[in-house]
Each structure stands twice: as C-alpha cells, then as structure tokens.
Specification:
Length: about 575
C-alpha cells in the first residue's frame, strides 16, 4: 500500500469515536506510556523458554475447566443416598461431595471430559513448573538480579502442590480419603501441637465434617488468588529485568536478541496456548485419570489396595515408607520421628534448600555482578552435579512411594526393596553427583579441544609412510564465541589468617570454610582457552597443507561428536 492511500487510525471514523474514551482513560491511568514502552519488549527465542509458558497456559486451562466444575460440585460431607445413573452405587450412602462428582461424571454432558482435562492440566501444571525450575537452576538464570523471582517460583511450586492435593481430595472417594488420612498422620506427628492442629483443621477428630468445605474454599478461592498474584509478580519482574538469553553472536549482558512482544511474540504465545489446551483436551478424552467410581465412597475403616497419590506427592510418601520406626516418649507425649522427620521435615528441607540456594552460591563464589546471559550446565559442573544429585534423591523417594506396586508387579520382596531404598536415598545421589560432574568436565575438555584443534571434517589423509589422519578445520568465529562466552575461573587463593602485624584477622574461620567450599565448587573445572592460545591454534590450522575445507554459509556448528550439524 502506498503512503498516499494510508489513513492513520486516529483519522478513521472508529478512531475518532474511540479517541474520547481512550484519552479519558489515559489521562487518569497513564497507560499509553507504559504500553508504548513494553508492547515492543523483546523476547529471545529458544525451546527451553516454552517450559514456563506450558505452566502458565495449563494454569489458564485449570481456571477455565474449574469454573465449569464449580457449577455442579457440592462441597459437603453430609450423607445422602445415591440415586444417580451409575447403577452399582444406587441406594448406597455417600457424601454429597462424592455424589456430585458421580453426577458430573455420568449425568452432566461433557462433565467427565472436563474433570479429566482439569486433572491432567493439574498434573501438567506442576510438572511444567518443576521442569521450568530445573531449567532455571541448571542454566544459572536465578543469579543476580533474579533472586526474588526465584523465590516467587519456589512459592508457586509449593502452592501448586498444595492446590493439586486439595483438588484431588475434594471428591471424597476412597483414594482421596486415604491421601487425607496420610496428611492427618503428618499433622498429628508434629510434636506437642499436632493433635490440636488436627482438630482445628478437620473440625474434630479425623475425618470430621469440615475438611471438604474448607479444602474447597482454599482450592477455588484462597490458593488460586495467591497463585494469580505470584504469577503476576513473576511476569512483571520478568519484564522489568528483561529475559535471559543463551550466549551467542551479538548477545551480551546489555541487550536482548529476539522478537518483540507485539505482534510476533504475542501471536506465538497465543498459538501455544491452543497447543497446550488441545493437548490436555486430547489427554482428557483418550486417557483415563482418577476414575472415582472405581474406588467407591470414603470409609475411614477401609484403604484402597495399592493406593498412590498424584506423582508430585509421591516423594513425601516414599520418605515416610522407608523411614525406620523411630519413636520416643518425652514430656508425656509420643514423638513420632518416623513420620515427622521424613514427612514434614523432608518437604520443609526440600523447599528450604531451593529457596536458599541462590544466596548460598553467591556467598561461595563471591560473584556480585548482574547476569543476563545463561550458563551452559557443563560450565558449572559442581552446580550441575548437585542438581542431578537432588533429582536422584527426589527420584528415589518417589520410587519408594510405590514400593508395594513395584514388589507386586515384579514379584520382588517389599522388605528387600525397602532396604535398597533406605541405602539408595543416601548412596545414589552421591554416585549421580560424581558421574555428572565428570561428564561435565569431559564436555568442557571436548569444547576446549574443538577450539584449539578445530573440528573433525571427515576428510581422511594418507601420509607417505602409510599412516592415516583426519583433517581438522578451525571453528567459525561465531562458534568459538559461543563456546567461550562464559567467565574464566577465579583465582583460588587461601585467605590470610593474620594481618601485617601478625594479629589474627576477624572471621578467619568463616573465611577458611568459604575457601574450602569454593575450592570444592570449582574443583576439576576446565578453564576456557586464552586469546593467545586461540590465535596460535588458528595460525597452526591455517598452515596445514592440502585441500582446504570450505564451511559454507549454511554451517550450523558441530555436534558433540565433532560432526557439522548440517551433515
């Protein structure tokens, strides 16, 4: 369209009519300046950044399907006689909560589909948050100035797990009631105040008559409001700090290379919402989850055989299952360490370590700078090793939560499995840490070798003496930059114990401890080549006689095996 035929929006009929209301709002809210500044905000492009969006959009799916379910769910523990469509339960006494869940599943058009979409979206929400946090951890994206956003993420993960537990407890079926019984045991194990807390939360002795209505209000009102507030704060800080990006040509700590929010990123994010919604709808339609009619109504005297919680709560149950039977009597009370330490202490320890890690790492490294470039996991071998060790610890607890299912399905001794998990909860993370750190150091050596000796071209040459050798070609400058766009290792000098007068310096012991931890943190890491080493390597590769190796404009770097990706 030529410029002489273009009509500005403000000069059109619609623009003139909308100018008054829009101007009125802008005079009072000042939205024009904010929109002009942020609607062209640039976001980088990488598949790993989609993990956070999966969590965001699955939460939106949860809100939409949850609104549908609230129209028919009855959060009451009052006993009724079932007379609905599910013939095996007709004439059976059950709570109104369970009866309304059956009503939604069998009598409301699309009700079962919405229930299953809602449940799958909840599992996806927690899983995506966990995967997103792992990406943040392994790439160092939590470093200054994003520590507060990391804490918000930890809070979102904790609230998401509580929200999920509250949601699958609402139907009041035998499986969810067993889960509530487990939580009741955790509450009662708290020394001195456990029984008082149980009566306060359940409105009396378990199961009481208040827990379903209270969980319902927390599930649809209190926790979603907190989640919405934290998500809004999380997104605002993301925009304020600007998005992190992977190192590469033209990318620095002072810029962001990517696409603007409008129109490119908004269109892609909107399309991704429909992908997430479609995926959860497909799962809800084709894959059964939480068939409450198969469990029956909750009865405190019964337990579902092989009952398992949703996957994100299996870690806590696994720790309780493998804990030795430690109890003691003190001050006239029974102290159930076998439940309190793994159940309450295990989850508390997990989230405490997650919350404190950015500050602990900054104290160890002494790094006070701002970081907007991500760090490849191999370039922080100790952090990566600790992360994999934590995943292994979580995985062992998760597997231990299903020790009975593993034993019955594979015809193994449950006692033997319990002993293996008791040992493995301490041994396997250490093994995982050692292996992971060695792999990271090996990958660092491979990067160094590619920079200094070039990549393997696949061109085999035969020398006059009959030996064969493969020709190497220098990496492009952009690829060299990507492999070396990280900090050099700091000098690890032992702290001085005394001043120039021989007087002991204050905090000497703390400095010694910090030096030892710092030495362990950087132990074995391979430093990147210096500029002189790179220039010498380029000169050496340029002097090699024979047929030159042309990279071409379509060169996309090399794989971990040294082969160009375009091949």
């Amino acid at each position: 369209m030529s410029t002489d035929t273009y009509t500005p929006v403000e000069d059109t009929g619609f623009g003139k009519k909308a100018a008054g209301p829009v101007g009125w709002l802008d005079d009072r809210l000042g939205l024009a300046g904010v929109a002009k500044k942020n609607l062209r905000k640039v976001f980088p492009e990488h598949w790993s950044f989609m993990l956070g969006e999966i969590a965001l959009w699955s939460f939106v799916v949860l809100l939409l399907t949850g609104v549908f379910l609230t129209f028919w769910f009855q959060p009451s523990m009052s006993e009724v006689v079932y007379d609905g469509s599910y013939a095996p339960f007709r004439g059976l006494e059950m709570s109104q909560a369970y009866a309304s869940t059956l009503h939604i599943s069998f009598d409301i058009r699309g009700g079962l589909l919405m229930r299953q979409i809602h449940h799958w979206a909840a599992a996806l929400f927690v899983g995506a948050m966990l995967a997103h946090m792992l990406r943040i951890f392994f790439t160092g994206a939590y470093r200054k100035p994003r520590e507060i956003n990391w804490l918000i993420g930890v809070g979102l993960l904790a609230l998401g797990m509580v929200e999920g537990f509250a949601g699958y407890s609402l139907p009041d079926d035998l499986l969810s009631g067993t889960g509530l019984r487990f939580v009741d045991g955790l509450i009662r194990s708290i020394p001195l105040v456990g029984s008082y807390l149980e009566f306060f939360i359940f409105g009396g002795e378990f199961p009481g008559e208040e827990i379903i209505p209270r969980l319902y209000m927390a599930h649809i009102l209190l926790i979603p409001a907190l989640l919405l507030g934290l998500i809004a704060a999380h997104m605002l800080l993301l925009v304020y700090h600007k998005h992190t990006q992977w190192p590469g040509a033209g990318r620095t700590n002072d810029n962001v290379v990517g696409y603007p929010m409008l129109p490119v990123y908004a269109a892609k994010a909107g399309g991704f919402f429909f992908v997430v919604f479609g995926f959860t709808a497909l799962m809800g339609a084709l894959v059964q989850i939480n068939p409450v009619w198969a469990y029956g109504p909750y009865n405190p005297s019964e337990v579902t055989a092989g009952s398992q919680p949703d996957w994100y709560m299996g870690f806590s149950e696994g720790l309780v299952r493998i804990m030795p039977n430690w109890e003691s009597t003190f001050l006239g009370h029974t102290w159930s360490w076998n439940v309190f330490i793994p159940g309450v202490g295990g989850l508390g320890l997990l989230f405490t370590v997650l919350a404190l890690w950015p500050f602990v790492e900054r104290w160890v490294t002494g790094d006070q700078r701002e970081h907007h470039l991500l760090e490849r996991p191999r370039n922080a071998p100790t952090r990566t090793g600790l992360g994999v060790a934590g995943m292994t610890f979580y995985g062992v607890g998760w597997a231990a939560g299903g020790n009975d299912i593993i034993a019955t399905q594979f015809h193994l001794s449950i006692n033997a499995l319990t002993h293996i998990f008791r040992i493995g909860i301490f041994l396997f993370p250490v093994i995982a840490f050692i292996i992971t750190r060695r792999i990271c150091i090996g990958l660092q050596r491979a990067d160094q070798n590619k920079i200094l000796h070039g990549y393997e071209t696949g061109v085999i040459e035969r020398s006059p003496d009959g030996s064969y050798a493969e020709r190497h070609a220098p990496l492009p400058v952009t690829e060299q930059y990507r492999l070396t766009a990280h900090d050099r290792l700091p000098a690890l000098e032992a702290p001085a114990e005394t001043d120039e007068n021989g007087v002991a310096l204050p905090h000497g012991r703390v400095a010694k401890v910090r030096h030892r931890v710092r030495s362990f943190y950087y132990k074995g890491a391979i430093d990147k080549p210096t500029l002189a080493e790179v220039e010498h390597a380029d000169e050496h590769l340029a002097e090699i006689e024979g047929h030159p190796v042309h990279l071409g404009e379509d060169f996309q770097g090399v794989s971990e095996t040294g082969i160009p990706k375009s091949h």
